């Protein structure tokens, strides 16, 4: 490449980086406004609906008993369906014992070779079991299926909120996603046998995941209510049984084959004319991950699932049930992993150009900075970090008012570095797609992880860069 062509390529990369950054700032402002203006709505009466809670479980003996007990005590009118996905531990016996003593608790058993093929397949098994159990006279429009993780803790008001007039009280609503919180966000010693430094880093990672779900993700979902493109998550999703029937009729089963089975279901609900809703008036608690290795693997699975769902782009734009605004918002979400691949190359260009020029002529660059060039540097910093830092003070204002403003700003700054993980996970997801790898792996619970050899009283965990190198190597 000659020098002029190289200069054009560099200029083009700088322009693309600037356009992508400005577009993201506009997007952040758009989603922040409805989030700030969100107002709590009046709850409904859960007794107007029939509730069935699906709990997928693979080797969950440490948590499944407590989860069943919590769900049955908190929601006594709801049936609990535990799907044992051919566990190696005591998950099935624990669930069976609960079911033997309580007719509202049901065990759905899956066995090899049909088991461990993904969470969606496990949920489909429970859907067919529920169909076989329900009487023919059941009102399927007033029957709601909820999905709760094996460590999930829905808020006591969860079902009443979901039954409100703007949610399942409206027969046009096919599904409701509730806000997700991190149960262990206040845990300052996620690694009890580790050093203070490791625990500080682990605690920050827990808190950033809580910020992520309760502020930017919640803001995105609230804005999606306007575009009618709310996405379902893996925990705290509720769907009208009649809506699941419609999706099953169109493709044989409600949950399909993508690794992001929850969001894929929300796309199918949109395409079949159902309205997906989101509420911040209630929540479901789940565990955050304090270690980088499991977080990267989890988000790789999510990123690969998002890439897989790109096959629905054409159908979104041609469907008579999806508005142009809804198709636009869903498209932006589905191309995010691909934009991150592009961003890996274009975002560093301005900084690299600056460094190259500084190395070539330090005096000239210092003069340029003194004559106003510093404003461009500040602009790039504001564009690059500003939208992420914003979430810290919003997190304090809407979620955790006991946090001081300095700490809130620090969390926002930390979040700006936290999102860099997604560039790694997008590349890992891309590599897995190119190598035709789509197997589904469960994210191990914290109790399982800490019980492994080498994680209790053994040498310190490997550094973050080493973890990333290992994960990139294994795709």
SSE layout:
Elements: H1 3-37, E1 50-57, H2 64-74, E2 79-85, H3 91-101, E3 105-110, H4 119-133, E4 143-147, E5 153-154, H5 158-162, E6 173-182, H6 196-214, H7 216-227, E7 237-240, H8 241-251, H9 261-271, E8 275-286, H10 292-308, H11 313-318, H12 324-334, H13 336-346, H14 349-360, H15 362-389, H16 391-398, H17 405-418, H18 421-434, H19 446-450, H20 464-474
Parallel strand pairs: 1-2, 1-4, 2-3, 6-8
Antiparallel strand pairs: 4-7, 5-8, 6-7
Summarize the structure.
The protein has 475 residues and is of the alpha/beta class. Helix content is 56%, strand content 11%.
Descriptive labels:
about 475 residues, single chain, globular, Spore Coat Polysaccharide Biosynthesis Protein SpsA, Chain A, 20 helices, about 10% strand, 8-stranded mixed β-sheet, alpha/beta
């Amino acid at each position: 490449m000659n020098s002029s062509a190289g200069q054009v390529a560099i200029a083009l990369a700088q322009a693309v980086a600037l356009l992508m950054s400005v577009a993201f700032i506009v997007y952040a402002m758009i989603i922040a406004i409805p989030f700030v203006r969100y107002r709590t709505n009046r709850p409904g009466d859960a007794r107007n609906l029939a509730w069935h809670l699906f709990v997928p479980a693979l080797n969950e003996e440490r948590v499944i008993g407590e989860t069943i007990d919590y769900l049955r005590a908190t929601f006594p009118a709801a049936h609990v369906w535990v799907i044992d996905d051919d566990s190696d531990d005591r998950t099935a016996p624990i669930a069976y014992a609960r079911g033997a003593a309580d007719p509202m608790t049901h065990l759905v058993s899956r066995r090899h070779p049909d088991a461990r093929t993904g969470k969606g397949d496990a949920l489909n098994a429970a859907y067919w079991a529920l169909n076989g159990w329900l009487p023919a006279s059941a009102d399927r429009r007033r029957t709601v299926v909820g999905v709760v993780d094996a460590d999930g803790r829905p808020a006591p008001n969860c079902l009443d909120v979901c039954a409100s007039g703007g949610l399942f009280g409206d027969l046009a609503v096919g599904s409701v996603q509730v806000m997700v919180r991190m149960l262990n966000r206040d845990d300052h010693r996620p690694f009890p046998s580790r050093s203070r430094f490791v625990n500080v880093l682990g605690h920050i990672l827990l808190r950033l995941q809580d910020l992520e779900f309760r502020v930017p993700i919640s803001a995105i979902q609230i804005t999606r209510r306007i575009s009618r493109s709310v996405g379902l998550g893996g925990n705290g999703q509720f769907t009208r049984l009649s809506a699941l029937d419609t999706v099953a009729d169109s493709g044989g089963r409600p949950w399909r084959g993508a690794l992001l089975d929850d969001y894929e279901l929300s796309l199918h609900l949109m395409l079949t004319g159902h309205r997906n809703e989101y509420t911040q008036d209630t929540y479901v608690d789940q565990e955050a991950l304090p270690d980088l290795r499991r977080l990267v693997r989890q988000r790789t699975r999510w990123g690969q699932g998002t890439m897989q769902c790109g096959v629905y782009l054409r159908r979104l734009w041609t469907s008579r049930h999806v508005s142009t605004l809804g198709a636009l918002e869903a498209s932006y979400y589905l191309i995010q992993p691909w934009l991150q691949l592009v961003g890996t190359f274009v975002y560093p260009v301005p900084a690299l150009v600056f460094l190259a020029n500084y190395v070539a002529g330090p005096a000239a660059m210092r003069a340029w900075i003194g004559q106003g060039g510093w404003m461009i540097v500040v602009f790039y910093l504001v564009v690059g970090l500003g939208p992420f830092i914003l979430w810290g003070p919003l997190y304090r204002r809407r979620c955790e008012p006991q946090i001081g403003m300095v700490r809130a700003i620090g969390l926002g700054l930390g979040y700006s570095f936290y999102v860099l993980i997604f560039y790694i996970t997008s590349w890992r997801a891309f590599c897995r797609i190119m190598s035709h790898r789509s197997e589904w792996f469960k994210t191990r619970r914290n109790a399982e992880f800490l019980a492994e050899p080498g994680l209790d009283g053994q040498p310190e965990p490997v550094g973050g860069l080493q973890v990333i190198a290992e994960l990139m190597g294994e795709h």
